[in-house]
Amino acid sequence: MATMHLLRSMSLLEITLVVLLAGCQQCLSTNSDTAAPPEVLQHNGTVYAVCKMRPSTSLPEGLPKVYGQALFKQDYPHGNLQVMLRFSGFPAEDTSEPRAVHIHQYGDLSQGCDSTGGHYNPYGVDHPGHPGDFGNFVPEQGRISAMFESQATLFGGLSVIGRAVVIHEKIDDLGLGGNAGSLLHGNAGRRLGCCVIGITSPGLWGTMYLRQLRSN
């Protein structure tokens, strides 16, 4: 009786997820491509993550100090990863140059942004074929505000949770620079700011999404 009462109180989506995960009890702990954190059940089949951007601790004078957030949302098990960027601290003039944003391999800020390693490149391919090569973003009135989909994932062995987001000094040449650096990192220059990706509740995404809609 208790089981029947519980099932009546659950939504169809919640029941579907319970059945799905019960049929694969190891999904929460294996390294399969669709391994799911427990937040999948807690948040109706969706996982949310946040990365709180802070300026690099080794910036020379004259470079912008970037603050803000990178937010992530993905439906289990194969939804496209949605990314929202809200950064500030750039020069206010309209001629501000594009800035590159990438996911880097290590969530290690022990030496500031310099200890985050190179681009997260699980497939061992040239840039810009890395799943976290987000591309270039032009600040407007000192801010970057963008929303897009990415080939990266929050699930399984290739999850970007615990890795770093880095915003760079320069434009990403998208692998067209004709040199080795171009195929590694797009010659995007120094690291202005960085942060580590961690799981969060849905509230922050909802708040920032509404702000995004109002600003468009």
What share of residues is helical?
10-25%
- Radius of gyration over all CA atoms, rounded: 19 Å
At CATH's second level, what is the architecture of the largest domain?
Sandwich
* CATH superfamily placement of the largest domain: Superoxide dismutase, copper/zinc binding domain
Count of separate structural domains: 2
CATH class value of the largest domain:
Mainly Beta
Largest sheet: 9 strands, antiparallel
Alpha carbon gap, first and last residue: 51 Å
User: What is the CATH topology assignment of the largest domain?
Assistant: Immunoglobulin-like
* Structural category: alpha+beta
Strand content: 25-35%
Strands, total number: 10
Please write the string of helix (H) and strand (E) elements: HHHEEEEEEEEHEEH
Count of helices? 5
CA-based shape = globular
Instruction: State the low-pLDDT regions, or none.
Output: 2-7, 15-31
Question: Average pLDDT across residues?
Answer: 87
